Amino acid sequence: MSQYMLSVIVDPSVYDISTEDMQAQEQYGATGRLNDELKAEGSWVFAGGLANVDLATTVDNTGADIVVTDGPYLETKECLGGFWVIEAPDLDAVLKIAARASKACEQKIEIRPFDGA
């Protein structure tokens, strides 16, 4: 079994939606059910949602000095909102899981294998 990261790609405006919002409640419920299914299937490794991109800090120690900057590394229209790390036998199996994940959280999902997968 290889490991893959399923990245949830979101518009940063999703962080403006209250957790009390009915649609948000439905997404959290659907995502929680998917997590339970992945655990039962043996595909689950780890998952997590990320805080607002405004809370990001970037550290760059590639030059002569360490540079710490508030905010994300890149200014983009979309950002990483959360992720799953899963195990699956092949890309076809991952595609099926990613389709379920996209449906549950109502967001786009990017699939990337870990090096050596």
TrEMBL record:
It comes from Antrihabitans cavernicola. Belongs to the YciI family. InterPro entries: Dimeric_a/b-barrel (IPR011008), YCII (IPR005545). Pfam families: YCII. PANTHER family: BLL7171 PROTEIN (PTHR35174:SF3), BLL7171 PROTEIN-RELATED (PTHR35174). This is YCII-related domain-containing protein. SUPFAM superfamilies: Dimeric alpha+beta barrel. Residues 15-106 form the YCII-related domain.
